[in-house]
């Protein structure tokens, strides 16, 4: 996948060059523009259950495959303002992606879901993490800028749960309180996730959960 990322880190847009006879898979609704010889095919990719599991992970039930006979471009953009990052999978492992961060990938990449159990539930990231496998390129989106870390074996990185974008499945993770219950409730710090290497971890510099809470505070909803 040949991707050029422009206008980051605040309002990134990814322009994917599709070669003659090539294709790219894009999250439904993420297409911002097409140029040249581009056609679109919408499907569940893997059948009803595959679409259902993706939708449980926060992605759309359907995905769009963009094909080109003689070559063209597809521009993609995320819902929230932020950055994008291109990630390579070599087929030896999986990448776990938070809800809403998968934007596009090579058709060779399988986008499925992984049950997160109580860990994901208590981290506020939902019950499902998307599980991306295969060999090829992915395009991830973040709210705010995106940063990547390479953890050595045994090395630990702690993130606020709302700032997690993606991580290799070789990385172990556990969720805990940032401090005591007093600091959690009164100090403004909630739950954090400890990641232990080896492997890669991506974070976003803003939290969509914090944005939602701020909107609720400045624009409280009244019950009828």
UniProtKB/TrEMBL annotation:
It comes from the Bacteria. Gene3D superfamilies: Mitochondrial biogenesis AIM24. Pfam families: AIM24. InterPro entries: AIM24 (IPR002838), AIM24_sf (IPR036983), Trp_RNA-bd_attenuator-like_dom (IPR016031). SUPFAM superfamilies: TRAP-like. PANTHER family: ALTERED INHERITANCE OF MITOCHONDRIA PROTEIN 24, MITOCHONDRIAL, TRYPTOPHAN RNA-BINDING ATTENUATOR PROTEIN-LIKE PROTEIN. This is TIGR00266 family protein. The lineage of its organism: Bacteria, Bacillati, Actinomycetota, Actinomycetes, Micrococcales.
């Amino acid at each position: 996948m040949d991707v050029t990322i422009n206008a980051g880190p605040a309002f990134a847009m990814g322009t994917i060059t599709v070669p003659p006879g090539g294709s790219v898979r894009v999250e439904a609704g993420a297409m911002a523009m097409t140029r040249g010889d581009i056609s679109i095919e919408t499907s569940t990719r893997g059948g009803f259950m595959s679409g259902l599991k993706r939708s449980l992970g926060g992605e759309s039930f359907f995905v769009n495959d963009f094909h080109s006979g003689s070559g063209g471009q597809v521009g993609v953009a995320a819902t929230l303002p932020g950055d994008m990052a291109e990630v390579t999978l070599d087929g030896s492992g999986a990448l776990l992606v938070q809800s809403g961060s998968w934007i596009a990938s090579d058709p060779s990449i399988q986008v499925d879901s992984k049950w997160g159990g109580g860990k994901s539930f208590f981290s506020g990231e939902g019950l499902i993490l998307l599980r991306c496998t295969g060999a090829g390129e992915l395009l991830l989106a973040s709210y705010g800028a995106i940063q990547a870390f390479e953890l050595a074996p045994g090395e630990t990185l702690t993130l606020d749960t709302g700032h997690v974008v993606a991580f290799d499945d070789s990385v172990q993770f556990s969720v805990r309180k940032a401090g005591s219950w007093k600091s959690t409730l009164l100090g403004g710090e909630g739950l954090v996730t400890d990641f232990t290497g080896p492997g890669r971890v991506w974070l976003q510099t803003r939290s969509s959960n914090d944005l939602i809470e701020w909107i609720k505070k400045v624009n409280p909803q009244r019950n009828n």
